Amino acid sequence: MLYITVALSAEARPLIEHFKLTRTYTLPYTMFENEQIRLIVTGVGIENAMMATSAFLGHFSPSKTDMLLNLGICAAPKNFEIGEAFLAHKICYKDGFYFPDILFEHSLKESDIQSVDEPTQEMLELPADMESYGVYKAASRFFSTHQIIFFKVVSDHFEPLYVSKELAISLIFQNLKNLEAVLHSAAYVSNKDPLFSQEEKELITSISDHLTKAQSDSFYDACCYYKLHHKKPLHPQGTSHESLIKVPKDKLSKKERSEYLESLIKTLTL
To answer: What does pTM read for this prediction?
Structure first.
């Protein structure tokens, strides 16, 4: 299942038409769905995005093979073109940061994005929106970092007064082909069965038994990266075609777990 959050009805309209979504009244939010997709209109702002996303995902309880897409328009510096789509790989808000893992192949630009509390006419150094931080903060309770996608389309160069409903609809429509390509590539990563063999899944499980839940998620993300970028099988150290993964023989202490995870991620993401 693909879960989609958008802030505005105008951003939702192209998706509703393209994916043939129908209105549903499961929650007290504007929502649409079909057999593969559920979409919610969160409203504008970090708090609205966080509350709506929490209610959305808390009600449906997504599985480990599902994905969440946050789609929307944003302002950006002039080195971005109006209508250009990009994927956010770092979300900034005040002193906080989140890092979505983009493990799949794609042809779009990647960029940091800054979440702000209100529309601004000040030219910032980064693209800016008003929802990404709230969406990620809520979604990270339900999804691993590689399952959360931030697909943004530049609507203006910090000139919010020139952004109309019609412009937002048009820009999203123009990027539906880019969106389809991203979702197709990301789905390959999200679906565990084609990505890992049974032997590899058993190896991942045996190592995850030595880690906490959060550490296991980070390790799994690193395994996905290794498979997609190196296109080689996962094997423990000491075997043929080894990927240099060391399997602990004894129970690890808290400090040893952290050091072990650090070495795993370094090995897999070189």
So the answer is: 0.75
